[in-house]
C-alpha cells in the first residue's frame, strides 16, 4: 500500500512538473492543448492545473474569443507574480532584473560603476534592489531566488567563482554571500553558458539540438555548447571558454596583442574606443558604430570580423553545429553583414562541417543573460512544483 501511494505521489509530481514546464517554455496553452501534449485525460489535466493555480504558479484565463467551434478551453498561463531576480555583474556595470515565470521582465536596472566591484558590493547591491522592488514593482510577488550570470569560471558543483579575471575575483563564494545578504536561495553560473540556455529554450536556437553560442561582453568572450539538445558543461562546469583560445591571424597587421587570445583581439573596449565612448549598452554601441563616419572605426570592425570568422571556423570544425548564435557585441559585429560573415566562416572551415551551417544573432537581445540566470533559479521549482 505504501509503495503504491509513493508511486502515485511521484507520478503526480512528474505530471505537475510537465505541465508547469510546458506553459513556462511554450507560453499560454489551453487545457485541450495540454491534454494533447501530455496524453493525460481532461479530468486529470483539470485537477493538476487546479493544484498549480492554488499554489500561485499558474493562472487560468478566458479562452480565445475567436475560437467558435466546440466548447472553449481556458488558457493556462505561467504566473507573472512568481519572480526570479537575475544579476549580471560586469566591469562597467551591474545589471539586475526581475524575470517572471511567464518570461516577462518585471523590472530592470543597469547600475554603471567606475571601479571593479567586489563580490560583497554586488551582494549588497542585489539585497538593496530587492528590498526596494518589493515595496514597489514587485509588491505582492513571490520572489523565489537569485540567479547570477558571472563572466568567469564557475564550479558547477557549488557555484564557487573560481576565476573571473576581469573582475579580479578568484575562489569567490558568491552564492553564499548573496544568500546571506538577501535571505534568498541563489544560483551562480557562467554568463555565456546561461545565455546559451536562454537562446536554446526561448530564442534564436529554440528547437535546435546542436548549437554553439558565443557571447561578447565587457569582460570578454565566453560561450556555451548544446549537443543533442543538452548543454555541455565539462567535468567541472568550465566548458565554452572560446575567448581564451588563440585564433590564427592571417595578417600580422591585424594583430594587436602579441600572443593574445581571442578576447584580446575581438574586444568591446576596442570598439568603444573606436567611436569615442567610455561606456555604453549594446544598442548605444551598435548605433554609434552604424552612424560613425570615421574610417578607423570601420577598419576596426572589419579587423575584428576577420579574426572572429577564423575563431568561428575553428569551432565549426571541432563541434559541427547546425547553428551558431552570436550575442552581445559579437552580434553588433555580425549584424551589418551576416551573410558575409557566414561566407568567411565557411571559406575557412572544412566543407562538410560547414554544410548547412546557419549563423544567427541572439534574438533575446539584452534579456538573454537575465533570462538564463532566472532559468537557473526556476529549474528547481519547475522540476518539483509540489514542494
Automatic annotation (TrEMBL):
Domain of life per record: Bacteria
Pfam family, one: ROK
InterPro entries in alphabetical order: ATPase_NBD, ROK, WH-like_DNA-bd_sf, WH_DNA-bd_sf
The protein's name in its UniProt record: ROK family transcriptional regulator
Family: Belongs to the ROK (NagC/XylR) family.
Amino acid at each position: 500500500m505504501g509503495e503504491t501511494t509513493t508511486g502515485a505521489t511521484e507520478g503526480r509530481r512528474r505530471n505537475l512538473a510537465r505541465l508547469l514546464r510546458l506553459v513556462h517554455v511554450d507560453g499560454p496553452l489551453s487545457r485541450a492543448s495540454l491534454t494533447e501534449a501530455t496524453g493525460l485525460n481532461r479530468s486529470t489535466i483539470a485537477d493538476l492545473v487546479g493544484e498549480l493555480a492554488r499554489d500561485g504558479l499558474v493562472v487560468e484565463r478566458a479562452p480565445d474569443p475567436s475560437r467558435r467551434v466546440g466548447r472553449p478551453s481556458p488558457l493556462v498561463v505561467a504566473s507573472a507574480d512568481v519572480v526570479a531576480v537575475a544579476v549580471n555583474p560586469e566591469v562597467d556595470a551591474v545589471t539586475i532584473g526581475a524575470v517572471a515565470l511567464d518570461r516577462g521582465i518585471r523590472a530592470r536596472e543597469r547600475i554603471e560603476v567606475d571601479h571593479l566591484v567586489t563580490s560583497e558590493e554586488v551582494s549588497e547591491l542585489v539585497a538593496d534592489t530587492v528590498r526596494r522592488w518589493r515595496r514597489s514593482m514587485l509588491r505582492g510577488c513571490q520572489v523565489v531566488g537569485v540567479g547570477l550570470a558571472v563572466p568567469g569560471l564557475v564550479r558547477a558543483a557549488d557555484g564557487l567563482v573560481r576565476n573571473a579575471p576581469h573582475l579580479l575575483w578568484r575562489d569567490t563564494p558568491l552564492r553564499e554571500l548573496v544568500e546571506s545578504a538577501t535571505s534568498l536561495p541563489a544560483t551562480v553560473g557562467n554568463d555565456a553558458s546561461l545565455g546559451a540556455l536562454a537562446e536554446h529554450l526561448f530564442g534564436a536556437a529554440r528547437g535546435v539540438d546542436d548549437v554553439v553560442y558565443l557571447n561578447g561582453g565587457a569582460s570578454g568572450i565566453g560561450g556555451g555548447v548544446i549537443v543533442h539538445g543538452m548543454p555541455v558543461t565539462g567535468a567541472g562546469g568550465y566548458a565554452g571558454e572560446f575567448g581564451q583560445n588563440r585564433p590564427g591571424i592571417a595578417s600580422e597587421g591585424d594583430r594587436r596583442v602579441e600572443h593574445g587570445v581571442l578576447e584580446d583581439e575581438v574586444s568591446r573596449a576596442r570598439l568603444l574606443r573606436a567611436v569615442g565612448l567610455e561606456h555604453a549598452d549594446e544598442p548605444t554601441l551598435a548605433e554609434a558604430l552604424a552612424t560613425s563616419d570615421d574610417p578607423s572605426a570601420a577598419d576596426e570592425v572589419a579587423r575584428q570580423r576577420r579574426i572572429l570568422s577564423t575563431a568561428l571556423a575553428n569551432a565549426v570544425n571541432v563541434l559541427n553545429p547546425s547553428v551558431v548564435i552570436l550575442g552581445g557585441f559579437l552580434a553588433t559585429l555580425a549584424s551589418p553583414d551576416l551573410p558575409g560573415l557566414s561566407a568567411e566562416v565557411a571559406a575557412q572551415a572544412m566543407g562538410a562541417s560547414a554544410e548547412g551551417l546557419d549563423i544567427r544573432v541572439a534574438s533575446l537581445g539584452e534579456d538573454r543573460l537575465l533570462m538564463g540566470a532566472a532559468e537557473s533559479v526556476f529549474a528547481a521549482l519547475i522540476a518539483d512544483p509540489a514542494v
